[in-house]
Amino acid sequence: xxxxxxxxxxxxxxxxxxxxxxxxxxxxxxxxxxxxxxxxxxxxxxxxxxxxxxxxxxxxxxxxxxxxxxxxxxxxxxxxxxxxxxxxxxxxxxxxxxxxxxxxxxxxxxxxxxxxxxxxxxxxxxxxxxxxxxxxxxxxxxxxxxxxxxxxxxxxxxxxxxxxxxxxxxxxxxxxxxxxxxxxxxxxxxxxxxxxxxxxxxxxxxxxxxxxxxxxxxxxxxxxxxxxxxxxxxxxxxxxxxxxxxxxxxxxxxxxxxxxxxxxxxxxxxxxxxxxxxxxxxxxxxxxxxxxxxxxxxxxxxxxxxxxxxxxxxxxxxxxxxxxxxxxxxxxxxxxxxxxxxxxxx
Length: 346
What we know:
It holds the Pfam family Aldo_ket_red. This is Oxidoreductase. InterPro entries: Aldo-Keto_reductase, NAD(P)_OxRdtase_dom_sf, NADP_OxRdtase_dom. The chain is of the alpha/beta class. Helix content is 38%, strand content 16%. The protein has helices at residues 32-44, 60-68, 100-114, 133-145, 159-168, 190-197, 234-254, 258-268, 270-273, 285-292, 301-310, 323-326, 339-342; strands spanning 4-5, 12-13, 16-19, 49-53, 78-83, 85-87, 93-96, 119-124, 149-155, 171-177, 200-204, 276-281. The strands form 3 sheets. The protein has an 8-stranded parallel barrel, surrounded by 6 helices. Strands 1-2 form a two-stranded antiparallel ribbon. It starts with a strand and ends with a helix.
């Protein structure tokens, strides 16, 4: 696959990355043999970026990736690792941590589990409520200077936090949910800020957690995900699936699946909004092969307008997460009015 720089000073990456969370953290964890085969299939096809976190399976995901790599694979793969999600022995999330001591301790364990001497992109998974972002990024910067980290990333943060972090150390990319069902980054300043500062974007949730696959069917009862993903709630699901069906004729016209069309749409946004890489979650090799075909789909301006007409921004019913989870997202906070807008101190 053709590659592009992830941000002005970032590494060259393929337009599609492999998100590994579902291999370790899911309602039905992947078979390990399938997961390892999926990682190897992705690397053989030209995927260069593997996205993981130390809390995916509480270390299991990093260990899985280490076991999946063959001789010579480390030289062609980039590890993007998130940290800061704290979990209890029952697997429940119990907090967000960003103190410098935790940053360094977490990396030490990640390096051991991944079997490597450095991480290519290291990022806090969420903005820690009790630690200034400057302290967290400052600690990662020290790890960059020491050679343990190559680049620094962010995840689910808003424009103000992006600017504050970038002032401490150049940021490689911001990981954010972005899809035809989640287009707030277009209007809340996140994509504009990244483009202005030369920061790349790694977009996850490009298939809206399965809704945009075109193969999801409404279950007889309530989908378990409805408790934390309101778009799967019965009050919203029918309307959202109707939106997905609007894409089917457009996908058929290209001879591709709805999932491939939705993925190609995200990749195509790089032409207008700076470097955007689609992070695809797959747990079986054939899913990787299907997803990667989307990188070769060329969408014309006419195609993009037709897609926008089929699913306008903001058309999806329901918020992307339940209220308790939305409250943890700095990316969802409304910026305070500026002096320029109000004419007074805010």
